Amino acid sequence: MSTTPIWFVTGASQGLGLALVQHLLSLGYRVAATSRRLGSLEQTLGPASADFLPLQVDLAADHDVRRAVDAAVAHFGGLDVVVNNAGYGIGGSVEELTDAETRAAFDVNVFGTINVIRHALPHLRAAGAGHIINVSSIAARAGATGWAIYGATKAAVSVLTEVLAQDVAAFGIRATVVEPGGFRTNFLSADSLALPQQPLDAYADVRASHARYLQLHGQQGGDPAKAAAAIVQLAQEPNPPVHLLLGQDALNRAQTKLDALQQELNAWRGLSESTGFDAH
Predict the structure, then answer these.
(1) Do 17 and 33 form a contact (C-beta atoms < 8 A)?
(2) CATH classification code of 6-270
């Protein structure tokens, strides 16, 4: 039986997911890769083989995710690393985005991740090993104007991973949240981003923020191939971190947020401490 690692990667037809799967296959790893469209996977990565299993999956549909995970286990004989990479950007103020648009973002970015974890865990527990890597965003730690719902979905993924790491440690399973900054993919293209269908004139700062981010498309500082290599290295570490930021911009934004948070903690410490019961 082959001992090469078995990876399960969602959102593999483009961007960071595609770069990761290409890198894994070049290393001789076995990979199950998912996308909403099977044709896009096969066109880019080729048909199913002994080392590669393309899967069309609706991540928001729990039964569909279970089918995909079971298919991967049946094809390869197990799972070693699960990467929840699928997701998309959604911009707009809370007031501008409809209930349906907001819930759709949570369905893919959050519940899709949860669905995969739910169905992968029994296999990882049975093996007594494994690594779950959830791709979040620096927006989870340091949000930007006009991206409240996106930031909220990624914050959910980050905190989910932090607690998941505690819940599964006793089974020999590790969990890491990867929080990238800007990488040169199509993430910021006008065709990829979900923006308000009926923007409100009152939100001038939101419009300006969206314009700045759209102008960054194709100019992001991060190299997807290097991010893929970093994720593979992460999975090889005997004691991987629970958090991994990718990109100098992510580090800078995180540090700025930490500094601001520390200032607020200090400034409002008195009011925070005033809410306890009196000693006498």
Answers:
(1) yes
(2) 3.40.50.720
